[in-house]
Amino acid sequence: MFYHAYNNYLENAFPYDELRPLTCDGQDTWGSFSLTLIDALDTLLILGNSTEFQRVARLLQDRINFDIDVNASVFETNIRVVGGLLSAHLLSKKAGVEVDVGWPCTGPLLRMAEEAARKLLPAFQTPTGMPYGTVNLLYGVNPTETPVTCTAGVGTFILEFATLSRLTGDPVFEEVAKKALRALWKTRSEIGLVGNHIDVLSSKWVAQDAGIGAGVDSYFEYLVKGAIMLQDEELMLMFSEYDKALKNYTKFDDWYLWVQMHKGTVTMPVFQSLEAFWPGMQSLIGDLDNAMKTFLNYYTVWKQFGGLPEFYSIPQGYTVDKREGYPLRPELIESAMYLYRATGDPTFLKMGHDALESIEKISKVECGFATVKDVRDHKLDNRMESFFLAETVKYLYLLFDPDNFLHNSGSQFDTGGVLNADCILGAGGYIFNTEAHPLDPAALHCCSRGRQEFLEVEEMMLDLKNSHLHSRSPSNIGQAAQGDTKNEIEIGPVTESDKKKRKAPILSCPSQLFTTKLSVLGQVFSDDT
């Protein structure tokens, strides 16, 4: 399935963003980045094709240019381009790429990801810190750009931007992502809900429908995954409060409806296909009972049509007018993969098999796989979104490949770091961004810890030098002659402020301070000889 789509993209659509499978040609959709190639890069390695991974990585480095006069979606560029490049960078050593000294804290794909992300930073220059939805990659935000952005477009940056900050040492990315999250948190209603679209200049809600689907979905996803990846209690607290409000006001018979964010009254009793990520996300916080019940509801819709329509009326049990399409989205398959990993229940393999058969039977054409225009009669549309190769095929493959390296539980690992230190990498616990690009949390810890230790060594050497100069000054030579000949350099105690700065976050394994590691080896003396 993957290679039928991928090879047809290369033959018929490259260097355009996406393949048009019915006419066997290509089109630019999200910014003219050869987007399908970036989105599919880590999938190549997950399928075991390191040779093609290496070829494409070189090709992207030679061809992709972000200094172009293009209006790009800030949200889509982040999750697909920045996320795809970061993931490929972190997997490049496993793919057999000859990496830079100091990898994963440096490297060409990381530099490309950073360059792309810097093009998005002007969008965050608002009074609230919440970003505009669109930015021109050459000129910044257009003066006539609308300030109205969807909730997900504000709150879906922390994974990619924090990864960039921790790997590169530049805090600006994580800072703007955190500021946007906190600004959004402050706008929730009296009953604890957020709406669908917000004015990023005034913080006023423009669309006040609250739910877990389109326009909101990945905001909640990134609170959970950001909390896990960064060991951030603040983010988990935010999600926990939202989760309570969502269960109180939007949940009915294990479906999640849309309600008015201030009153809690139902506005749309529909299920949206994008909501199908929710059970998988619930599995990450151990809420398996609720996840199973909701998943089974969604699975009944799949079995009814052979795919999930964009909107499904829960009271009528049927599609909603003009929302009957299925663009080969991954969300239900994603949840099946997570829940199968958590429970081992063969129901999820059955769902995966159904999805595989449906997609092959309904959407496969000579030049790839086509979007289903209408799930009722299975008419097709002339588009294959890049997420088909980034997410849908990837999650299906991972569902049926229990021994894939991404499922690693710590039995295998690699090493690396800023100072060629003893960083453990690739040992599992990968966090998928909302475009299914896996990120290794250990790399973030490795690079930030490596830089901290580098600074501590630098500081210690400076102290040694200053102490030595002080001990050799005329005023101190006499004192030394009078018997003060001990030249031992004491490593001072860690202050309370130091402890607060270096406190191990919840759920993480505390790392020893560099000075503590030295004291295990013995005390440090200056050499006067």
From TrEMBL:
Job description of the protein: Involved in the endoplasmic reticulum-associated degradation (ERAD) pathway that targets misfolded glycoproteins for degradation in an N-glycan-dependent manner. May initiate ERAD by promoting the first mannose trimming step of ERAD substrates, from Man9GlcNAc2 to Man8GlcNAc2. Seems to recognize and bind to exposed hydrophobic regions in target proteins.
Top-rank taxon, per record: Eukaryota
Compartment annotation: Endoplasmic reticulum
Keyword entries, A-Z: Calcium, Endoplasmic reticulum, Glycoprotein, Glycosidase, Hydrolase, Metal-binding, Unfolded protein response
Species, as recorded: Polypterus senegalus (Senegal bichir)
Active-site residues, Swiss-Prot/TrEMBL: E76 (proton donor), D217, E310 (proton donor), E331
EC number, as in UniProt: 3.2.1.-
PANTHER family: ER DEGRADATION-ENHANCING ALPHA-MANNOSIDASE-LIKE PROTEIN 2 (PTHR45679:SF6)
Cofactor entry: Ca(2+)
One Pfam family linked to the record: Glyco_hydro_47
Record GO cellular component, one term: membrane
UniProt KW Metal-binding keyword: yes
Region (Disordered): 468-503
Enzymatic class: hydrolase
Designated name of the protein: alpha-1,2-Mannosidase
Residue spans of biased composition, Polar residues class: 472-484
